[in-house]
Design brief:
It contains 28 helices and 26 strands. It is of the alpha+beta class and 771 residues long. It folds into 5 domains: 6-114, Alpha-Beta Plaits (2-Layer Sandwich), CATH 3.30.70.100; 117-254; 257-341, Calcium-transporting ATPase, cytoplasmic transduction domain A (Distorted Sandwich); 430-463 and 572-685, Rossmann fold (3-Layer(aba) Sandwich), CATH 3.40.50.1000; 466-568, Calcium-transporting ATPase, cytoplasmic domain N (3-Layer(aba) Sandwich). The strands form 5 sheets. The chain has a 7-stranded mixed beta sheet with strand order 14-26-25-24-15-22-23, with helices on both faces. A 6-stranded antiparallel beta sheet has the order 6-5-7-13-8-11, with no helix packed on it. A 6-stranded antiparallel beta sheet has the order 16-21-20-19-18-17. The protein is elongated. The relative contact order is 0.10. The model is unreliable at 1-19, 112-116, 355-360 and 744-771 (pLDDT under 50).
Length: 771
């Protein structure tokens, strides 16, 4: 279960963050101008863990004079603060820093500790392991006591349990104790306060019972309680870290700097943040463009996958734009920087992803709201129970035991397990079918999706050039072409070279003309050319119709046509079946692609998809996703490229194949490991079943509390009975969740592994990769 846990960070880490807090001047310099008189500052706040944290910060930070708005991103643990760009800005930022510390949420600038290895996960796993080991052993000893052990044996088992539980309490329980103390020391409360009280009092009373030779001790209740709560906390932390990694991977696409060519011809290497608009940058083959720029001179093939998602490179020449993150493939370029790094295309993508990640977990927010009500109610209920029994009986021991029973029996284990247990089981089912879920609340959103938006290249199709006329190509010409192609980085050349891996480069004198092809001169003086028809055949096409196929690579010798190699991009397996099954589930489908209209239209007709749009850039995909959401839809985005990352983050839920670009894969909520697109409807079906079970678990948890709490308040439940009831409620929730395991595969999924039909193979040429 997620709870307000600023104390989840180690005390040493928090103190280090306080001492490393940025100065007002550093914060002002790190902020960016939104409009005249308004600036935005982004800060990393590691202590953010739940909806209560969000509510507190978004409520308190705008109270600082000069701060107009604060938005918290739970996934990335970032707080964006909008403030006035005035002469008094430094004092506003100084007060803002003091407010963060006063609330118990020390903050620092991005690029520092947020990139370091987070020790929290390691601490949680160790605490969970210790609590699990202790709970198993203490429960075994308790079974012997419950079975009627004699007084001496019972005392011995109680003392052994006490010795096991004590270090467990200090080591594993510190996660909750630290959080509770942090909240109380800053004048507020959270769910960890009653949890800490219940665990501590259960141990204290159990120790008193052991010392006084009492019949009942409740060490098992305290350590088992810790184990269940730590399991939920660890699962929650793992999901948060998965969500944060997408933005970090996108940022890594940007190079650290670039070679700047001065007006006098001298060259200097400048860091990324030092590059300013107007500077001339030298971009060598194999380098990524650091900032948005315009080509001043040079000619090269460039990989624009980050922009349009297409695998086929594009020719760029003087006057053409090259956005940040694009990859230069074949020739050197001289670029003029158009924008700074913080305003570049990549920075815009990062901004879109972070903005789209905030506040999407419906069930989790419901649990957080229930948690906010739970804490004060439990405190009042336990205190009221103690006072009532003291007034009624005058027996402090009886009153204390009853109050502890209330604290234990109202422990929200069942409520806390209602979501994560189903998510774990559903994730296991998905994994059995080759699908990875990376963010727990994604299944909640997947269950409600009503519209699927598919990218084309790499998603509905394989995204890899494939030689489709291999049966008609002469083997000797294939060997010659493969030898020449080894000297080029062009994707089509690399695909051609891979067809004859035994071919050697030979004694060719090779020169590559970016955007056209490769010229190879033999020792005998023969000139071979491999590339576009205009390059290889002086403008002729060898009698081939360009519209008849996908990408064409021509081979010639001394201007005479030898062979043409036709490449296409084949349909991904199971695409047609997936679209049909989506329709059966009542889910509409459409295609958004950066490719040309002709292949997109042909593919849409093949699949029976009525709605499609070609030539769409990343911003256009995000705008379409947002339009669907505004209209009341809940779109699922399925994409694979760097350019799909913002749309994947903006969508209600997202999915990507395992061979997707790193950024696209990390931005997605689901990743399928096999080739079949039937993973998409399968995931929707499993998620819908999981959503139904989560709602049932919530109902069971509420029913449990309606019965158990009155029984504990009225004294019908000892701490031992309370511990058993608490554990039983958790077991009931788990057993209900296990119903999801009844069916391991969705019917028809395995059928998608069959070979392609002749009709499908024939259609590959028509919607093949664009040249």
């Amino acid at each position: 279960m997620s709870c307000c846990a600023a104390g989840t960070e180690s005390a040493a880490n928090l103190e280090a963050l306080k001492t490393a807090a940025p100065s007002p001047e550093e914060m002002r310099l790190s902020s960016r101008l939104l409009s005249d008189g308004v600036r935005q500052l982004d800060l990393i706040v590691p202590g953010i863990h739940c909806g209560a944290c969000i509510a507190l910060l978004e409520r308190e930070l705008p109270k600082v004079d000069g701060v107009s708005h604060a938005r918290v991103n739970l996934s990335t643990r970032r707080v964006s603060v909008v403030f006035g760009d005035t002469d008094d800005a430094d004092s506003v930022l100084a007060e803002l820093g003091r407010t963060f510390n006063a609330l118990g949420y020390p903050a620092h600038l991005p690029g520092g500790a947020d990139e370091a290895v987070d020790p929290t996960f390691r601490e949680l796993v160790k605490a969970l392991a210790v609590a699990g080991f202790a709970s198993m052993n203490v429960m075994l000893l308790s079974v012997a006591v419950w079975s009627g052990a004699e007084a001496a044996t019972r005392d011995l088992f109680h003392w052994i349990s006490a010795l096991i539980a004590a270090p467990t309490l200090f080591y594993s329980g510190r996660v909750f104790f630290r959080s509770a103390w942090s909240a109380l020391s800053h004048g507020r409360t959270n769910m960890d306060v009653p949890i800490s009280l219940g665990v501590s009092l259960a141990y204290a009373i159990s120790l008193h019972e052991t010392i006084t030779h009492g019949e009942h001790a409740y060490f098992d209740a305290s350590v088992t309680l810790l184990f269940f709560l730590l399991a939920g906390r660890t699962l929650d932390h793992m999901m948060r870290e998965k969500a944060r990694s997408a933005v970090r991977n996108l940022v890594r696409l940007s190079p650290r700097g670039a070679m700047v060519v001065r007006h006098d011809g001298t060259r200097d290497y400048l860091a990324l943040d030092e590059i300013e608009p107007g500077m001339h940058l030298e971009i060598a083959p194999g380098d990524r463009v650091p900032v948005d720029g315009r080509v001043v001179s040079g000619r090269s093939d460039m990989d624009f996958a980050v922009v349009n998602g297409e695998s086929a490179p594009q020719l760029v020449e003087a006057g053409m734009l090259a956005p940040a993150g694009t990859l230069n493939l074949t020739g050197p370029l001289l670029l003029e920087a158009m924008r700074s790094a913080k305003h570049s295309f990549l920075a815009e993508m990062v901004s879109m992803m972070e903005a789209a990640e905030s506040g999407r977990a419906g069930y989790r927010r419901l649990a957080d709201r229930a948690s906010a009500i739970y804490t004060p109610v439990v405190h009042v209920l336990a205190i009221g129970t103690f006072i009532g029994w003291m007034l009624a009986t005058g027996d402090w021991r009886m009153a204390m035991l009853t109050a502890v029973a209330v604290l234990i029996i109202t422990c929200p284990c069942a409520l806390g397990l209602a979501v994560p247990v189903v998510q774990v089981i559903a994730a296991g089912r998905l994994f059995e079918n080759g699908i990875m879920v990376k963010e727990g609340s994604a299944m909640e959103r997947m269950a409600t999706t009503d519209h699927v938006v598919f990218d084309k290249t790499g998603t509905l199709t394989q995204g890899k050039p494939r030689l489709v006329n291999a049966d008609t190509v002469a083997p000797k010409y294939l060997r010659v072409a493969a030898r020449i192609a080894r000297a080029s980085r062009h994707p089509l050349s690399q695909a051609l070279a891979a067809l004859d891996e035994g071919a050697e480069a030979g004694d060719f004198d090779i020169v590559e003309t970016p955007g056209d092809g490769v010229e190879a001169i033999t020792p005998q003086g023969d000139v071979y050319r491999l590339g576009r028809s205009e390059f290889a055949l002086d403008g002729h096409n060898g009698g081939f119709d360009r519209a008849a196929g996908g990408s064409q690579v021509f081979l010639s010798v001394n201007g005479r046509f030898l062979e043409v190699f036709l490449f296409s991009d084949q349909m991904r397996r199971g695409a047609a079946q997936a679209v049909a099954r989506l329709a059966a589930l009542g889910v509409d489908a459409e295609i958004l692609s950066g490719d040309r209209e002709a292949p997109v239209r042909t593919l849409a007709d093949e699949l029976g998809v009525a709605s499609f749009c070609a030539g769409v850039r990343p911003r256009g995909k995000v705008e379409r996703i947002e339009a669907l959401s505004v209209a009341g839809g809940k779109p699922l985005m399925v994409g694979d490229g760097l350019n799909d990352a913002p749309a994947l983050s903006a969508a209600h839920v997202s999915m990507a194949p395992a061979n997707a670009a790193d950024v696209g894969r990390m931005a997605a909520d689901f990743v399928f490991l096999h080739d079949s697109l039937e993973a998409v409807p399968l995931t929707i079906e499993i998620s819908r079943k999981a959503g139904s079970l989560i709602r049932q678990n919530f109902a069971l948890a509420v029913l449990y509390n309606c019965i158990a709490v009155p029984a504990a308040v009225l004294g019908y439940a000892t701490p031992l009975v309370a511990a058993l009831a608490m554990s039983s409620s958790s077991v009931v929730v788990v057993l209900n969740s296990l119903r999801l395991r009844r069916k391991t595969r969705v019917e028809g999924f395995a059928k998608s592994t069959t070979d392609r039909t002749p009709a499908t193979a024939e259609s590959e040429i028509r919607y093949g990769a664009s040249a």
